[in-house]
Structure formats: structure tokens, C-alpha cells
Fold this sequence. Notes:
With 116 residues, this protein is mainly β. It has one domain (4-98): CATH 2.40.50.140. Helices cover 9% and strands 53% of the residues. The chain contains one helix and six strands; from the N terminus they run ββββαββ. It is globular, with a radius of gyration of 15 Å.
Amino acid sequence: MxxxxxxxxxxxxxxxxxTQDGVFVCTFPVAVTTRKDETVWVEVSAWRELGxxxxxxxxxxxxxxxxGTPAVEAFTRKNGEAGASLKVTAQTVQFLGVKGGDAGEGRxxxxxxxxx
Length: 116
């Protein structure tokens, strides 16, 4: 099985929902900066208890470390061009901090870790 690790910041607040089978899933976009100073967006999904914790504690701007299984999804843009998006199903999510380095009031600081 292929595994991917990434560190980046959430581009927006996480969205949570239940599947038809009653399983909770949380999704959120993570912006990752490459060595060439380019930004790559990765759509992360976290399931069940991991998803519930991500939905509860994460917010836009929060820095995270994600380890999970990658997948590439092809799509067609409105103008007819082919495109692809990178998605990761998280196995581990570690909360690192917020953009700018300030953990902020009521948030988990860089030193603290939520056990999963």
C-alpha cells in the first residue's frame, strides 16, 4: 500500500457528515508548499473517531501533519480541459499549530498532542 505524509495549513474549516451507513467522515483542504515554493492543494478525508476529532478541533489556518493513503481523481473542468485532484484518506492527523505560529486561545498548542 502506498503511503503519503504531508505538512500544511487548512484552507477552510473542516466539513463533517454522516454516510448513508451512519459513518462519520470529515473533509478538509490542506495547502502544502513544495520546494519550488508552489502550493499544492490536497483534499483530506478522516473517518470515524479520527474524523470526529478533526471536525471538533481543526479550523481554517491550522497547521497539520497528515499520514495516509493517496489517490488521484480525474475530472473535467468547465472549459472542457482535463484535470486531476490529489486526495488523501488520513490514517494519522497531528495538530501542529495555526498559520503565523500563534496557537491562539482555546486551541491545542504546538507542544500538545491529541492522542488518536
